[in-house]
Write a structure and sequence with these properties.
Zn_peptidase_2; transmembrane helix; 3 strands; hydrolase; mainly alpha; Zn-dependent membrane protease YugP; 224 residues; transmembrane; 3-stranded mixed β-sheet
Length: 224
Amino acid sequence: MFLIYFAFIVLIPILAQLKVKGAYSKYSRIASSSHMRGAEVARRILDSNGLYHVDVVETRGQLTDHYDPRSKTVRLSSANYHGHSLAAAAIAAHEVGHAIQDQEDYAALRFRHALVPVANIGSNLSWILIMVGLLAQLSGLLLLGIIFMAAAVLFQLVTLPVEFNASNRAMDQVVSLGIIRNDEERQTKKVLSAAALTYVAAAAVAVLELLRLVLIFTGMQRDE
């Protein structure tokens, strides 16, 4: 039973990553009708929303695209910064979606930012406490580890509405500004949906692992 569970939580993230890479690889070879580079897409949407102060810069790596709220910067990986593809447009628009959330003080984004310190501590410390608690059969220490882990899981769950909202904003922007045509909407949505799947997979695995540990804790309590 444990082997089935372990295979399950390992396969979910792998399948999600394969889905992302497959969609990105396919649609990065299809040029958008506007033929705008990812950097131009980002700049166009930012300016249309009055976000002239937000910079768009190139960053190293593949699919390392993100919005940095501290420096108010949209960072696009080289392929998406220079690319003219539907994938580049979709990802650039998605990251600008986060910038728009930031500008509008979107509640879920603010909550996620507030959780960052707690989530970092939780993810780093939880497994130490959990492993020591399990090895030493100390239910109190295990419970403390579970509480820290729950904070990290909460961060992942809050991330879901933030990411889905950014993707919805991205679609609205690329359509309303004429960056993509109506017949390109379905393809653009596939890129955004595949990217969102990685967050769903991570959250699902985290919740399952948390539930497993809670069951172990309740079993230890009964034995005591």
